[in-house]
Automatic annotation (TrEMBL):
Domain LicD/FKTN/FKRP nucleotidyltransferase positions: 457-700
InterPro entries reported in the protein's UniProt record: FKTN/MNN4/W02B3.4-1, LicD/FKTN/FKRP_NTP_transf
Pfam families: LicD (PF04991)
Domain of life of the native organism: Eukaryota
Keywords assigned: Membrane, Transmembrane, Transmembrane helix
Biological classification of the source: Eukaryota, Fungi, Dikarya, Ascomycota, Saccharomycotina
Protein name listed in UniProt: BN860_15742g1_1
Amino acid sequence: MLRLPLKVCNRWVQTHRSVLQKVTLLLIVVLVVARQAGWVSTPAAVQLLVAMGPMAGRARTLYRKFKFDTVMQWPEEYTLRGSLLTPSMGPLKGQELGSIDDLHFYDGDPRLVWSVYLDHAMNAVQSYQHEAANSAEHEQPPTLPFSWYDWADHHDFNKLIAASQDGGVEITCPFLYERAFEAEKLELIEKVAGSPLFSYQRVKYYDPEWYKKIRAERPGPEKVPETQCRRVNEAAAVKFNLPIQVHELHEDVRPEVYQMQARSYLFSELRNPLSLTMLESDRAAYRFPVRPTRSNLVESRMLEAFLSRHMTRADEQADFTFDHVARMQEFLKSDAAFKAKVVIPDAHRTQEDESVIPLKPSDFEFDTRGKIKELEKLEADKKINAHQKQYLESLKVSIATHPALAPKYLSEAAHISQFAGMGYHRDKRFFNGGLVEEYQEYQARLNSLIRTWLRFTRTNGLLTWVAHGSLYGYLYNAKNFPWDNDYDVQMPIRHLHLLSEYFNQSLVLEDPREGNGKFLVDVGTSITVRTNGNDQNNIDARFVDIDSGLYVDITGLSVSSNPQRDNFKDWYEQKKKTINMEQDMKEFKNPEVGDGLAAMDINTLAQYAKDHDSEFNKEQKEWIKKVAKSEKDNFEKKNAPQKGLTPPQRYFMNREVGAYNCRNNHFITMDFASPLVKTLYHGVEALVPYRVIEPLRKEYYVPKDLGFTTYQGNVYVPELRSWFNLNILKRFANMRSWNANLREVKSPINDLKLEDLDPLFENMHNIGYTDLFSLYYTSYNITAYRLKELEIQYDTTLTKEDKEDVLEILRHDVAPKMPPPVKDPTLYMYEKRLWEDLAQSMTKGEVDRVTQEVSYGIYKELFAAATDLYNKKASLFMITDDSGEPYDFNHIGTEIPKENKLFEKDYPDDRKE
């Protein structure tokens, strides 16, 4: 382990800290007196405080927290009377309701929902212990009530409920199936609700020409079939919903219409998850079964029971505060947590203690029939749980379905009108608005998505690594490319099966002390099919954000009969020399052979389909023809690595040489992948393949250097460790002095110097790209960490052992110091609404002065941080161990020169065992 001596100045500062604090306070007092006496000039910030009084301080604090602080901390408490019983929208806005029975709607605030559900779980276990001490039920976690209304964001949908329930606005089924909303009805709803119904392209409705054209393209339906949408007359069914309920989704509408349609479908039609899985950071997971009926915390009387247990007479006189963090701490020590804790026997439970994780050939093969027998025995013994039962059914369906006939499982909102194809990146069930114009919220949701996936899998010992475009983005600054709309990860097939058996259709809940993400694990039904087949199910599973529909694409890697791609030919030719295929295959049984039609090869199936034409629909016949043609091409392809081999022969050879693929025919080899290397991605511990560059080069063009790089109008700036739109970057640099009010950066933008960063950051602050400026600031430490990691990984003067020691200390001691690169999206939207409400009570000039003053301070902080990093004095890399011994990692690692060949090849070979 490398150790650095403590600097004398640092030791002196520590020793004299109290004295320094007193001197600093005295200087501040003297400065204030001097300014009041007119001895020195008063800066604009002080003038603002004097002019606006306490309001200015509140505004500055809130705005800075909203835009530039990513720590998971609520700015105010959530109370029964002041928050829950006081509607924030509609005709009753600001009026306190008499009781929870008067509620027609409420936002699923995490502080409310977590408090009630955690308390219910703990109380239910106590009831079991008293009433069923000798039963098997005593050993199981309690089954929880569930409603999507409690867990999914529906703030905008509540505006429809408020307008309908409290404002008397009639909302009919056609309103949710028109290409664009009826303008008069939309304006009425917004007038009653007291705020815009949606934000994405709202201004379009003020353009008469656009409105006339969009309404004429497809007139709204006069009557919607009851199979799609129907009116509900029962009062109980209308509460916390609309008097109409959507039962079928229809995408040929604009995003704002589909948003409301999809939320109605979610609350009315979508089945409940099988369980709730609550995370304790990346240390543990707790899984609770969910009841199949819909019942939110009011309807189930959970809230009423919670208040009866905890609300005192003093609370009745004042107000009751929901403290979900305290409730979480109590839960983690409870019997409920003990009974619900997830332990997966076959998972990789030793991840915490390893710097690298070796993979095994057995990780990439799976005995489907053996697993079916194991689960059938559990079922016969009545010891099977809901997840295992569903998994068993899925295995049976999958093994009996030919790859050419497997229907598409995962669904995207691909056909939303006027959305530029962005619906392809959203799950159609959970679409909740455009988001494209809300760049900071969009990035917040993507960030929460991947951070929770990485914590969830690490917690449960499930091996997964960053792949494809996400891995390419990691290479530069440990983040996704800013233009990417989803994430790609891979898993060995054995761990994909564990994901399905334990968590398919579970709603994973982020630790509420770290964030408020809620994500559905959704694994496809053709999990045993490992070939490309009819190209309908290339993605095996998704981790879906239920508040937006954004997702992580999950693909399983396995041995299969998929033919290797041409760019593996040289590698394959070398590997196959030691294999006698004809001799070694004598006892080989192809595990890809299924049951029924799935037992047939594609040519046999094609003939069967021809002889039994009536058994197949048109689409299935086309699929069979496509797969048959593809197999013929694979067999006859002259330059292919495995030309002339049959599917069973290809499977055997892929297994023997250690070549594994996903169903989209992306191959990786054991040589490239193992051992998996620990790193950080979006600030969370992650795994990447041992070799990164070589696999990426088989998919993309990867430059040989880490330098100024251009891609489709975007540029990577090494001095900033970030990607920018080229035109925006030119504006920041004030090239050709396009704006006389901005400072000009003297150096070319592809060769920036330290002194250029001051005007560049100041222009960022002045020019108005607030979201971009904020995201750059909040992710600064994350990208600095990646640079330090690269400096260590490519340092040829360090031994393998030194590198592992230093990188481990960085992960354990430096990484926890870094706040998330982006704010939690739920907190972001909450604070955004607070800020907008506060800003309405101020003049435009006052708002401008507050935002400019805060932004100016951030610009100065950025330049100071850049200067410290350049001078190797970054506080991020100065740590102290448990014994008080200091470590300064600023000077560890080789500084990467401008002229480098960093990405010419993978890390130095001495990193491998």
